[in-house]
Amino acid sequence: MHISDGVLSAPVWIGGYAAAATIIAATIKKIKVDNMPKVAVMTSAFFVASLIRVPLGPTSVHLVLSGLVGIILGPAAFISIFVGLVLQAFLFQHGGITTIGINAIMMGTPAFLAYEIFNLRKNFSFGANEFIFGALAGACGVFLATLILALALITTGSEFMGVAKYAALAHLPVMIIEAITTGFIASFLMKVKPEILKGK
Amino acid sequence: MHLPEIDKFAHLKSPLHSWDARVKIVSISTLILSIVLLEDIRVAFLGLVLAIILVFLSKIPFSFVLVHLRWVLFFVLALFVVISLTVPGNLLIKLSFFSISREGVRLSLLISLRAISAALLVFPMLGTTRFYLTLKALQKIKIPAPLIQLLMFTYRYIFLFLDEEKRVFIGANSRGWVRKTNLSSLKTIGSLVGMLLVHSFERTERIRDAMVSRGYNGRVKTLDEFTLSAKDFIKASLIIAIALLLNLFRWIR
């Protein structure tokens, strides 16, 4: 889910850039030569995710993976998603240039919450903790992003009310697929390479 | 599927290729900003014509540009349908159960013009310089080093990841797996993506170690040096003047 150039009013996208710059400034210290490979892999995974299609009845939806980026990178997730969006905008013309800031807020801030949700698993013992909390984190990534998308559209002008409603509805199946897939990815990683999911 | 090789035609020769990358990025970004701020459909149309002229001057083939533009076109099309049907106003066409308003068509046309022009301008801006030189230019414009490093690594890994992704899914298909809408299919996709991540983590850690042992410390180093000439500034002032003029129209009227 991306907002293209030319849709939002100037205060909304300029505000998006200002907010994104603040978050980047606050978390840029989390990126070092040491964890660069991990962050770069997650960024390219986020970039490529939009090409992994999951069939859904007659059509198909694609993965978003913003929740997964949050789970694995924690506080560095926002910058990763920001860079992923920059590359998508410039290499694929997917999304917009003036809207990179607001798109990063839309997909990146939910990743922080996804990380916190996934860390809660340590307080429970369901037997399938990674799947359950991974799924919740994945759902949270898409759900909050849809919410922010709708808000950005509505604050731009009342004529976007219709678009906002359709966009929110269209993301319901995306959220369900994303949740289940993120859950399976998290439980797979737990079995194969648990140190990736160390968290705090 | 096409690979996201934005600099595929960076070897050509044109007024945009010879333009200093730093000045080029700043000037064309200004033009993109100014076009996105336009409110008048006629001026926005002028912006689109300008963008097409710049792509033409850059000698990047239009077939290449069009393949890249398909996301924007898809987005614009979807927006056209939804906005024309949901924005109220003077009726343009009324069919039995839906109506298209003049305001809706005007709004979606304006958004389409702005979005397509902005996307087109990326080609003269980034398609005319090798990607690593663009990164070096960004470093000179004082973009924080961690961001540039991350851009560089990610750009390289994208191609790797795309290859691996294809390989993993071909492997699954050749074993008789078919994508379906059910839990077991999602579980397989989850495991394949997880496998992809584990492979990539291990591989990129080896790449990082190899780079660090050869003296990598987080800065872009190339032998190319940037030099500024009068021509660079003439091109820059031309583009920035156009960017300002486009937005001045509205104040004059």
Description:
The complex is a heterodimer of chains A (200) and B (253). Chain A has a single domain, classed as Arp2/3 complex 21 kDa subunit ARPC3 (Orthogonal Bundle). Chain A has seven helices and two strands, in the order H-H-E-E-H-H-H-H-H. In chain A, a hairpin with a 2-residue loop joins strand 1 and strand 2. In chain A, helix 1 packs across helix 5 and helix 5 runs antiparallel to helix 6. The relative contact order of chain A is 0.17. With 253 residues, chain B is mainly α. Chain B has two domains: 135 residues, no CATH class; 75 residues, no CATH class. Chain B contains nine helices and two strands; from the N terminus they run H-H-H-H-E-E-H-H-H-H-H. The interface between A and B is large, with 65 and 74 residues.
Q: Main attributes?
A:
heterodimer; A: 200 residues; mainly alpha; Arp2/3 complex 21 kDa subunit ARPC3; two-stranded antiparallel sheet; 2 strands; 4% strand; B: 253 residues; 2 domains; 9 helices; 3% strand
Order of helices and strands of chain B: HHHHEEHHHHH
Strand order, largest beta sheet of chain A: 1-2
Beta strand count of chain A: 2
Distance between the termini of chain B: 47 Å
- What count of structural domains of chain B? 2
Largest sheet of chain A: 2 strands, antiparallel
The helical percent of chain A reads 55-70%
β-strand percent of chain B reads under 5%
What is the CA-based Rg of chain B, rounded? 23 Å
Per DSSP, the total helix count of chain A is 7
How much helicity do the residues of chain B have?
55-70%
What's the SSE blueprint?
The complex is a heterodimer of chains A (200) and B (253).
Chain A: H1 10-27, H2 36-49, E1 53-56, E2 59-62, H3 66-73, H4 77-91, H5 100-119, H6 129-156, H7 161-192
Antiparallel strand pairs in A: 1-2
Chain B: H1 21-36, H2 41-57, H3 62-68, H4 70-86, E1 91-94, E2 99-101, H5 102-126, H6 131-140, H7 145-174, H8 183-213, H9 230-252
Antiparallel strand pairs in B: 1-2
